[in-house]
Amino acid sequence: MKKFFEKAKLEYKFKKAGEGHTLEDDSRPSSRQQASTSQMPTARTAPSSDVQRAGLVSIATCKHLLYLHGSL
User: What is the mean pLDDT of residues 16-30?
Assistant: First the structure.
């Protein structure tokens, strides 16, 4: 049963990754290289104050738990 799920998971990952290419196929330029040079990366926006607060709370919680268990 475990092997079945591992195989299904592996097949899903390969399907998600898309088609590959062989190493011998260097005669034509890669579409990935062309796409990456023609597109400018988009600027990231700053997280909202609620997201920032949630991040700080999670960090503080982790530090508190580490302190309680003597790891910090």
Answer: 67
| Helix (H), strand (E) at residue 39 | none
Global model pTM greater than 0.85 = no
- In angstroms, the CA 55 to CA 50 distance is 9
CA distance 45 to 22: 38
The pLDDT assigned to 3 comes to 86
- The rounded distance, in Å, linking the Cα atoms of 25 and 35 is 18
Which pLDDT score, from 0 to 100, does residue 63 have? 92
Place of tokens 């990935």: 32
Output the CA–CA distances (angstroms, integers) from residue 46 to 6, 31, 43, 50, 59, in the order listed: 38, 31, 10, 11, 18
